[in-house]
Amino acid sequence: MRKLIAVFVFFAFTALPLASPAAQNKAGYVKCPICGDRVNPKTAKNSWTYKGKKYYFAACCTKKDIGNFKKNPQKYLKK
Ligand SMILES: [Zn+2]
């Protein structure tokens, strides 16, 4: 249930910049390694550098999700 609310908040937040045509440029987005959602590195609140690569996490991923990712990144990156 908490995840559903987080997803809603994420979409409500990301819908705002879409009002401007310039913001519709999809270039520069990266994929959240945990859930696969698109993440804008400029606005991502959470990121982590692993083996020289920086990963950005979508707003839907909680601190707990990110903690699990850090403990076992290979599990997520092999997907
Ligand atoms: Zn995510």
What does this structure look like?
This protein has 79 residues and is of the alpha+beta class. It has one domain (2-77). It contains three helices and four strands, in the order αββββαα. A two-stranded antiparallel ribbon has the order 1-2. A hairpin with a 2-residue loop joins strand 3 and strand 4. Residues 18-25 have low confidence and may be disordered. Zinc ion binds next to loops.
Tell me briefly what this model is.
The chain is an alpha+beta fold and 79 residues long. The protein has helices spanning 2-15, 63-71, 73-77; strands at 30-31, 38-39, 46-50, 53-57. A hairpin with a 2-residue loop joins strand 3 and strand 4 (53-57).
Search tags:
single chain, 79 residues, alpha+beta, two-stranded antiparallel ribbon, 3 helices, 4 strands, globular, binds zinc ion
